[in-house]
TrEMBL record:
CDD domains: CBS_pair_voltage-gated_CLC_euk_bac (cd04591), ClC_3_like (cd03684). The keyword Transmembrane applies. This is Chloride channel protein. It is a multi-pass membrane protein. Residues 751-810 form the CBS domain. It is found in: Membrane. SUPFAM superfamilies: CBS-domain pair, Clc chloride channel. The gene is GEF1.
Length: 855
């Protein structure tokens, strides 16, 4: 069923009056074949040519209405404010691969010739990137402005300073006291659950990682740490048996167990909880900004994420636990808050409350993953929350405190620490080391740019169709890469007395850096719970350690060089500490891949306790920040948001709409309701056959003067509360002045009589600021008080994508070339697979033939 949309007044509009231009009205056909008259402002120049912006308007028209064909009637007005006179008609059938149209000499009259109308001057490529915008419809938008107003209105009534509380009963006052402390009750429960989950997963991960190399003879369920608890030397313990004692079996067991763990994690995620794949930070940022993704924070997602995460990490995949820790922490916050508030809070209270719990839980997730409570707080503020509030930061602080305290109580590593490693650097830093810090910062920036770029290509390809430092766990490798070499070195990396040994160590570290980058590119984004924080830190640690060894050897070979005399004694062999460069390299790569700054600095300090190196860390991270701002395109989470077509308005990014007015981006597929004249049957037909969430209230169909708007949820609530069963012809009113009978559906109390409105000529950049700072569900677009359209955050994002991606021929050419290479690579892989399968079948047939011949 198609609904008529109020047309604009029959006048040429201010454009024709000011510039002598003309207007176009569009008649379209929907899937039912019924005609819908929709006003579309397209300005014709004096020579009858359409401006370049018209192609954007038509693209938006197709996108918002999902039309297949359009009939455009061209009008002109000889005198301002006189009726339009038809000049000609243009028909167009939309095709996904239509590369351009050129309608010429199709509309003629004795007064005007419309020529060279090229409404699609540039090619239109509805490729996979644009099709990804269809995921916008999977998200529901939260009206933060409306919910906050109702939330604070309710709190003002129960506030002790309110004059209303003097007349309320004692039970209501007790309830108001309970409401004031309920947030901390929930945060306490959420923090305890997050800390408990983190402790269990840490033990599981360590156990599954250990059984790849050996087993415990006293109890198979114990990991290496617990199995050798009473032994003086863990490496000479008799209770833990290494597979290396059995020769070739060592490699066979290592590979077999790794494959089983990785395949199990992948199968669980793919078949039972697809939303548990990946990191989850990208989706959480979208949810915190006001979009809701169904089942992403469900208990099933939490369960499979918690099970699949230790399997994926223990398998040896280049993944980390930090991103997934944020996801399962937010799942815990979502599940507990919904169970707690199911029959306690109203919907608008749940939305406001849920956002605060979500941000606080995300900080607690990072806190337990790194053992960094203050780093978690800063992460929630810098990365997740799209607006800074002191109350939000305090709630995140409290939740992180409870979570880390719970993790400390369980002590999963039996070291009294909440992290696996802690280092102490005895040597002070020197000013002559600053160039090395800058080099590490440059490497971190380059690492972030390269890995993010190629990871997007690897994920796109996936969607369309032995080294010492790589074999061990990434966290364990960083544990000794950060350490100083003492008199009793615990690893061969400290035995650098001869040049061959030093060269071998440097080569191993650099080779591990390259392979770790490659593994991270292909692993992050695959169908297992996967984070990128620890792989990035491990990559930076290996590169930093290699650079530190090179710098140390240079100093040893040139002890009297003037470069070192400013703060390094000749007889001081430990003047250069390679572990420091591993520490700084890890921080640089973490900052480079996430585009976080203050949060990274604090996390590195809490992770290692190296407070003495605060200035070198700040120099390194600042250099990485400069490189990212100059050549980067945002952190990996932001780039995955764009790639996956997730709806997110980044407040830190510049959105250049080139002065386009809001009328270009607004949707004109609006169902408006007049103050009177609507029946219950008509209203139910609208609710059943449309999925619109906002309905503008206008004075009448002939005079669409804006009187307010009502949400779909409020319409349904009023209907459900109506006493009795309304008849089909029961009148519905949206204004108390309209009718006064009792047998009516009165929606007056649910109508927002002061909606946010913008003029059609307001720049789209200003509209974006309103959505970010106020968080309304929609804005009504008006001209002289008359309804012209409606715009939501989804409309702005769609229009921005169309504006910046569809019209870029060079980008389209590059994408086509990329897809071509991907198809060639897939064909190559398919040929290899077919060849291997043919050989497998051939060997199997031979075995069967021999068996049957013996029989």
């Amino acid at each position: 069923m198609a609904f008529d949309i109020p047309e604009q007044p029959q006048n040429p509009g201010p454009f024709a009056e000011q510039h002598g231009y003309n207007d176009i009205k569009v008649k379209t056909y929907d899937y039912d074949g019924q005609c819908v008259s929709i006003p579309l402002t397209v300005l014709l120049k004096d020579n009858g040519t359409a401006p370049a912006e018209t192609n954007i308007k038509l693209n938006v028209l197709y996108r918002t209405l999902s039309l297949k064909s359009v009939v455009i009637k061209v009008y002109r007005a000889d005198v301002p404010f006189s009726p339009f006179r038809e000049v000609g008609e243009i028909s167009h059938t939309h095709h996904p691969r239509n590369k351009g149209l050129n309608w010429k000499n199709t509309a003629r009259s004795n007064r005007m010739v419309v020529k060279d109308i090229d409404l699609l001057a540039n090619r239109t490529q509805w490729d996979s990137d644009v099709a990804a915008l269809g995921r916008f419809e999977d998200f529901q938008t939260t009206d933060w402005l409306h919910d906050n107003l109702l939330y604070h209105k309710r709190r003002s009534k129960t506030s002790p300073s309110s004059t209303v509380t003097s007349s309320v009963p004692d039970s209501s006052r007790i309830w108001s006291i309970y409401e004031s402390i309920q947030t901390y009750v929930i945060l306490t429960i959420v923090g305890i659950c997050i800390g408990t989950t983190a402790a269990v997963l840490n033990v599981m991960t360590e156990y599954l990682s250990n059984i790849r190399t050996g087993y415990c003879t006293t109890a198979l369920y114990l990991n290496r740490n617990f199995c050798t608890w009473g032994e003086l030397d863990e490496h000479q313990a008799t209770t833990w048996v290494e597979y290396s004692r059995f020769g070739v079996l060592n490699y066979a067991m290592f590979i077999t167990i790794s494959l089983v763990l990785a395949l199990t994690s992948s199968k669980l995620v793919m078949h039972y909880a697809p939303l548990a794949a990946g990191s989850g930070i990208s989706e959480i940022k979208c949810i915190a900004s006001g979009f809701t993704l169904k089942k992403f924070l469900s208990f099933a997602t939490y369960s499979l994420k918690s099970i699949g995460l230790p399997l994926a990490i223990a398998s040896g995949l280049s993944v980390g636990k930090e991103g997934p820790s944020v996801h399962y922490a937010v799942c815990i916050g979502s599940v507990i808050s919904k169970l707690f508030a199911r029959k306690v809070l109203k919907t608008h209270q749940k939305n406001v409350w849920f956002r605060n719990i979500l941000v606080a839980a995300s900080g607690a997730g990072v806190a337990v993953a790194f053992g960094s409570p203050m780093g978690g707080v800063l992460f929630s503020v810098e990365e997740i929350s799209n607006m800074f509030k002191l109350s939000t930061m305090w709630e995140s602080y409290y939740c992180s405190l409870i979570a880390v305290a719970t993790l400390q109580f369980f002590d999963p590593f039996r070291t009294g620490q909440v992290v696996l490693f802690e280092v102490i650097f005895d040597q002070d830093w020197h000013f002559f080391e600053i160039p090395i810090y800058i080099i590490l910062g440059i490497f971190g920036g380059i690492y972030g740019i390269v890995v993010a770029k190629f990871n997007i290509k690897a994920v796109s390809f996936r969607k369309n169709y032995f080294n010492d430092f790589l074999r061990m766990d990434m966290t364990e490798s960083m544990q000794f890469l950060f350490q100083e070499c003492d008199e009793h070195p615990h690893h061969n990396i400290c035995n650098l007395e001869s040049k061959p040994e030093a060269a071998k160590a440097i080569f191993s570290l650099l080779w591990a850096t390259v392979l770790r980058m490659i593994f991270t590119v292909f692993t992050y984004g695959c169908k297992v719970p996967a984070g990128i924080f620890v792989p990035s830190m491990a990559t930076g640690a290996t590169f930093g350690r290699a650079l530190g060894i090179i710098f140390q050897l240079w100093r040893q070979n040139n002890p009297e060089s003037s470069y070192f005399t400013s703060g390094c004694l000749v007889d001081n062999k430990q003047c250069i500490t390679p572990g420091v460069y591993a520490f700084l390299g890890a921080g640089a790569c973490l900052s480079g891949i996430t585009h976080l700054t203050v949060c990274v600095v604090v996390i590195m300090f809490e992770l290692t306790g190296a407070l003495k190196y605060i200035i070198p860390t700040m120099i390194t991270v600042a250099t990485t920040k400069i490189i990212n701002d100059k050549w980067g395109k945002g952190g990996i989470a932001d780039q995955m948001i764009v790639f996956n077509g997730l709806p997110f308005i980044d407040p830190h990014e510049e959105h250049n709409f080139f002065g386009h007015p809001v009328s270009d981006a607004m949707t004109i597929k609006v169902v408006s309701l007049p103050l009177q004249g609507v029946t219950y049957g008509q209203l139910m037909a609208i609710l059943k056959e449309t999925d619109f969430q906002h309905f503008p209230i206008i004075q009448s169909a002939s005079k669409p003067l804006i009187k307010g708007y009502i949400r779909r949820e409020d319409l349904i609530n009023v209907i459900e509360r109506f006493a009795g069963d309304p008849l089909t012809d029961t009148p519905c009113i949206f204004d108390n002045d309209s009718l006064s009978e009792d047998d009516i559906l009165n929606f007056t109390d649910a109508v927002n009589t002061a909606p946010l409105t913008v003029n059609v000529y307001v720049p789209t950049e200003h509209v974006l600021d309103i959505f970010h700072k106020l968080g309304p569900g929609c804005l009504l677009v008006e001209s002289d008080g008359l309804l012209q359209g409606l715009i939501t955050r989804k409309d702005v994002l769609k229009y921005e994508y169309v504006l910046h991606h569809i019209d870029h021929d060079e980008s389209i050419r590059i994408r086509e070339q990329t897809f071509k290479y991907q198809e060639q690579a897939w064909e190559f892989i398919s040929r290899i697979e077919n060849s291997l399968m043919d050989k497998v079948y051939m060997v199997r047939n031979r075995l069967f033939k021999r068996r049957y011949s013996r029989i």
